[in-house]
Amino acid sequence: MSALPSFPITPLLPEIRASLAAHPRLVLEAPPGAGKTTQVPLALLDQPWLGDGKILMLEPRRIAARAAAQFMAQQRGEEVGHTVGYRIRFEARVGKATRVEVVTEGILTRLIQDDPELTGIGAILFDEFHERHLAGDLGAALALDVQGTLRPDLRIVVMSATLDGERIAQWLDAPRISSPGRSFPVKVAYPPARVQESTEHHLARVVRVALQENDGDVLAFLPGRREIARTQSILEAPLDHPPLPLGEGLGERVRSERSASVSPNPHPRPLSQRERGEIEVVALHGELSLAEQQTALSPAEPGTRRVVLATNVAESSVTLPGIRSVVDSGLAREPRFDPHSGFTRLETVNISQASADQRAGRAGRVAEGTAYRLWPQSRRLDPSRTAEIVQAELSGLALELAAWGITAGSGVELPWLDAPPAGALAQGRDLLTQLGALATDGRITALGREMLELGATPRLGAAALRAATELRALVADLLALMEARSPLRGEQARTDDFRARVNALHAWRDRHTAGARTGADAGALAAIEQASKGWRRRLDVRSAASGVPDSHAVGDLLLHAFPDRVARRDDGNPLRYTLANGRGARLHESTALHGEPWLVALDLRFEARDSLILAAAPIDPRVLERDYPAQFRRERVLRWNEERQAVEAFEEQRYAAIVLDRRSVPVKPEDALPALLAAVRAKGIDVLPWSEHAHRLRARMQALRAWMPELGLPDVSDAALLDTLDDWLAPYLNGKRSLGALGADELSQALGSLFDYEQRRQLDAQVPESLTVPSGMNRRLDYAEGEPPVLAVKLQELFGLADTPRIANGRIPVTLHLLSPAGRPIQVTQDLKGFWERTYPEVKKELKGRYPRHPWPDDPWTAAPTHRAKPRGT
DNA sequence: CTCTCCCT
């Protein structure tokens, strides 16, 4: 150990050893450059608790796993594969003597599932745990479960670079040791955007400032390719105005921000023509070919300064030499799974504080640096990155859990740092059931176990294992191509026909064409071929596929991975498709798949209406009939025809939600009734044929209920009627096929049926339709909710009536609308007596002249009531 | 008409 070179973490190693001797779990916080990855595993090798056990160290990336193993082996003066080895998918360098095994995260899950006792393993170290990958979280939860049950002696060390150590330590119930890093101070500035300035213009402007104020290269972080391209064109366009004047705006602001441990170039000056000519702008993102990435990663020509416009690749995956300043948009694109739609979509989000610090740290690897942040300093960032487990698609996790014995109803839980959300987990289990990996009781099937053993995603695993033996060579290619980014470049890169990728791989393999002529990236194809070779080994295939597969072969194999994304072209619109899950999708206008009646959509960009199909392959629908017979259904379907206000019946032949054939069939009465009731429920009570009579009947029923609550009458408000349609309306709709067939009388009868005989008797007695007035005529009563009834009547008809009539057992006085002989309103009153006494004499004086042929007695109490005028001449 | 990064 004494031979170890010194790292910032070196002085802490005794403390780390002591802690693990006393306590089986530990949280180790150390920023990049502290040496934790390479020093901690070796420092634990001689510990008594380890005996001759192995140390497993998890890395989130393959490159990092290889590099860490390489570095440690070198440090011991050995080859990789002796004391120190590594294991990543399709590649292992471990030997009998190997005691430190650096593995990628998915490998650990396999190891634990294969041997839950973790025989021979004494410690597991989770490096870069702050990245919170799904596999890392699962691995840690499984390891904790094993430690708590079968292996109390197992040591678990979680190494993290963020401020989140406290939370992790609580979760683990573990002590916490922090190490300083090895990096130079980085000064942070927050230059604000100008009014209406786009992110790209803001960023380009600050990049120019960074070039002025600092030596060395500039690394800028943007959320994606589109923003990188826009920024690049802004930076490469000739300046239409001279660069920033001295001492104004940003230059000043930068120097006044925070206390700087180092002051940037104290005399920023405009770039000269010559200097600008020496600045090289390069893009860096995951879609680039290896060669293109190399350009960005290699040192610039002497005398040339470089501006690297990068996505998140540059945050952790690659190291860039010579960076002295970082310009950070504060944005990243992250996948979010929506359990409702079953799709994952990319969202542009604000980065976490941990990411911001990690990005800024990139400016301090070689010397002091400056980080320019393009968001307001007042903005509060989330302290650390959201764990993948809370926002990702979870079918893979659900399958691992099922293999561990955790099913939907098992009630068993793992000790999660962040538990998987129930909705996404349920959706994952649904998919697994559809793929045949889970039985109906939720337990894992034999196919599910095979899928885990194969080590592909559940979707691709299902496709691979269901393929006929003679197609397995092609399946291996499809797995490799599906997992990789598209190898196509140039014109070809735009195609949405997935078969173009297969053809490019086969052409490259067959050496018929040079890499360049296939329009594909030879480096990418070589990597895909490596993966395909790995899959061929696992699938027991001797030789690789070649040539151009049959037109449906690719789709027919991959539809077993995406049975829910089988798509059929709509009749009306050749670009529009309906997916088996019922959602809409469309091909873009320059599609290479125009006219294909059936597709399997392999990649979609989610949109609320019609998702865009980014990659697809044609399929033969007969394969669906053969392999998913249960999804084919012939069903009677009832539809509401809005125009006819009537029920229609169809017989539909469907694959899942895709309608293959629809024929009109006669409507059965027992079919129609529920559909008619549903239509009323959906459209509201006003859709019924309300007559004047029915309205009035309902008003009286409501009035009686309000005025004589002791009768306990049913509510006939809109809401109550809708709630009880089955009771009162159904008998009258029975046998009908449209709402129009319901007569107005029938509606009244139906309403009336809500009251029994006695209640109807009370209705007629207490809330009558009309009153007989002294003239002998029946005059209608008008009922409105919450008001006394209105009796409109000519004055002359009431002669002899002393008091206001009352109804509802005398509880409610009617409101009299007293009318002139011509039917014009004279007075509204509930006090007839008062009217006769006070108002009538005046009314008489006024109207007698106008209606001389009508009686205007001085004494209305004793006069004979009449509804007619006096006969002429009397 | 345009999608971040990674992994069994």
TrEMBL record:
Keyword Nucleotide-binding: yes
Stored Pfam families: DEAD (PF00270), Helicase_C (PF00271), HrpB_C (PF08482), WHD_HA2 (PF04408)
Keywords of the record: ATP-binding, Helicase, Hydrolase, Nucleotide-binding
Keyword Hydrolase: yes
Superkingdom of source: Bacteria
Helicase ATP-binding domain location: 17-181
Transmembrane segments: none
Region (Disordered): 233-276, 850-874
Gene Ontology MF, one: ATP binding
Residue intervals of the Helicase C-terminal domain: 202-405
Protein name: ATP-dependent helicase HrpB
The species this protein was found in: Dyella jiangningensis
